[in-house]
Each structure stands twice: as structure tokens, then as C-alpha cells.
Amino acid sequence: MKRRELLAGMAALGVAGSVQARPLMPLHDKPREMLSPPFVDGQGRDLTLADFRGRVVLLNLWATWCVPCREEMPTLDGLQEKLGGDDFHVLPLSIDRAGMKVVRRFYEEIGIRHLGMYLADSTRAMLAFGALGLPTTILIDRDGFERGRLVGPAEWDSPEVMAQIQTIINERSE
């Protein structure tokens, strides 16, 4: 078993260290097809991943009750602030059963200013995305294929992670 896979498995079991100790996202050898359950945004619009086609997306499955999710959310906000735009979007997909009101309250409490709000049915999202734990983060290319996955928290706005994501964003011009 590779070191990264071992660390990802440990993270899923809650064994891994802090957000700062996380490795870069392991990338797949070949892009993988994905399913997309329906979800809603903060304005109540129905969406799927197809609505983001043409942009690189960092999909983060999370919940307000998940401590590691809460800890990494400011770094996802920082990533969206630094790289977000026409070519890249952070999609924090909450699976909170209490609905959008707890997501809004959480964003207000910790000062999230750059991330959109998205909500999905927890069972459908976890099954469709093959998520074994929270947080689960999936890097999706412009064509809607999964390029990498990390189970557990990360420091998403670190220079190393941003460089890794920028490599996928830059593939358009190759």
C-alpha cells in the first residue's frame, strides 16, 4: 500500500494528524467518470456537477458537525479567494440534514466570504461520490472527470496545494 493511500485511510478513521500535516491530494493515473446527485445552492436552485462543466472544480463533501471539516473550511475559503473564477471553483457540498440554515449560520460564525453554499441529501451524495468519511475532497477536471481524491482535512490554500490545482487548471492550454 502506498504511503498516501495509507494516510488517506488513516484520515478516514480519524487517525491522521492536523490539517497542516496532510499530504497533497493523490492524483489518479487516469481520469475517472463520476456520478452527480442533484444538489441545491444558497438561492435554492437545483444543480448537478454538469452545471460546472468547463471549470476545474474542487468538490468538498462536509458537514457543520464534522470537526475536521470545520477546521479546513477557512482554507477552502482562502483557495476560492485566490484561484476562484471562470477557470476554477471550490464547491463545498454540505450534507447537513438540518438544511441550509445551519450552513448559513456556520459561514457567518467563522467569516466565510468567498465560498458559495451548496446542500445535498447526505445518503445520495455519500453513495454517488463513493465517500467513506468526511471531509472527502474530489478534484474534477473541466470535462467532469475525477482527477484526484483526498479523505481527511487539508490546508487547501497552501502554496503546494494551489500549485497542484493550478497544474490541472493549466491543462486547458496544452
From TrEMBL:
Domain Thioredoxin: 24-170
Sorted UniProt keywords: Cytochrome c-type biogenesis, Disulfide bond, Plasmid, Redox-active center
Main location: other
SUPFAM superfamilies for the chain: Thioredoxin-like (SSF52833)
Keyword Disulfide bond: yes
Localization in the cell: Cell envelope
UniProt keyword Disulfide bond, yes or no: yes
GO molecular function, one term: disulfide oxidoreductase activity
Superkingdom of source: Bacteria
One Pfam match: Redoxin
Example GO biological process: cytochrome complex assembly
GO CC annotations, alphabetized: cell envelope
InterPro entries the record matches: Redoxin, Thioredoxin-like_sf, Thioredoxin_CS, Thioredoxin_domain, Thioredoxin_ResA/DsbE_sf
Protein name: Cytochrome c biogenesis protein TlpA
Organism: Roseovarius indicus
